[in-house]
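Batch job 17 of 40 flagged for manual review because the log was empty.
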Amino acid sequence: MSTFLLLTDTAETVAETSGGKLLLDYLIYLAIIIVGIIVLLLLRKATQLPSHTAVKERLTAFAKAIAETEQSAPERLVERLNRVGKLVSECDKLVYETSALARKERDGDMDSICTLLEEARNELSAFRVGDGNEVWRLTEARTRVENAIGTLDNILARDKTLKKNKKQRA
């Protein structure tokens, strides 16, 4: 009789543990799915391209940084390399963003902004490796960035007109 009670007792514990194990498995799967969704949302946010106004803000800040460097161009090689290296890095980011926007939107004007930024990057790189007396290169780079801002202003005006026309049609 005691053997029979032992067998029924173990059968109940097995049933309870398999139900509990099943519930635990489902909770683990749910946690994995939630973590996966969060990772996908973070990746989507990180790879999202900026808006035209955000690009304009960054271009304006970049032009100001070039103007500050132009006002107080460092004479020492290490300082010049560090400061202009940061500018070149920022310019590379802007070139990437504008070229990605140009590809996505298939916009020739945005592609011309990318070209102007590449030319500004070339001027900054030439100043970086130069002897420090070529401050005109910084002026050229700033001029090209300001031309890019002007082109972006035209794009923003075009976007505004398109939105206005779209609202009138609806």
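Reviewer: the log was empty due to a logging misconfiguration, but the result itself is present. Helices lie at 2-47, 52-71, 77-105, 108-129, 135-169. Unflagging and moving on to job 18.
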